[in-house]
Amino acid sequence: PVIPDLEKNWHPVDSSTGEITRLDVSFRDPYVILHAYTSCDSGDCDWGEQASCYFNQPFEVTYDLKFKTTILTVQKLEGGILSVEALDHFLNPPTNLADRKTVYQFK
Questions:
Q1: Which of 6, 7, 11, 78 stands the most exposed, by the fewest C-beta atoms within 10 Å?
Q2: For residue 46, is pLDDT > 90?
Q3: Region of residue 18 (left: phi > 0; alpha: psi -120 to 50; beta: else)
């Protein structure tokens, strides 16, 4: 597939919008690799890399964490903005939190 201009380190347009503090995007044909960092008490927490076969946009990657599963749907918008929709499914217990959807924008 034709690879769009996504391969770079992305930072939030508004750093106060939530949990994801940085996304690094790279390609290893035919995979897109997403490396996510999130806000923690001690600074940034490294969620690690997740790969997805890249056919087109949007594409999805899934992070299975100890307390939740997060699906990130990623798409580059006009104006060079990267839109990321995060669907969090919290595991009950241990969290007893309701599932949520958050939309982030990165530049």
A1: 78
A2: yes
A3: left
**pLDDT by residue (tens digit) across 53-64?**
988 889 999 999
Q: Which of 39, 62, 58, 38 is nearest to 50 (CA)?
A: 62
Task: Supply the DSSP symbol for 16.
Answer: T
With 0.90 as the threshold, say if the pTM is over it: no
DSSP code at position 52: E
Q: Which long-range contacts (CB under 8 A, 24 or more apart) does 35-41 make?
A: 36/63, 36/72
Task: Determine whether 2 is exposed, middle or buried from the number of CB atoms within 10 Å of its CB (0-12, 13-18, 19+).
Answer: exposed
Confidence of residue 70 (pLDDT cuts 50, 70, 90): very high
Report whether 61 contacts 52 (CB < 8 A).
yes
* C-alpha to C-alpha distances, 36 to 82, 92, 94, 101, nearest whole angstrom: 14, 23, 23, 17
Joined together, the tokens standing for residue 38 give: 């999130």
Chain centroid to CA 81: how far? 14
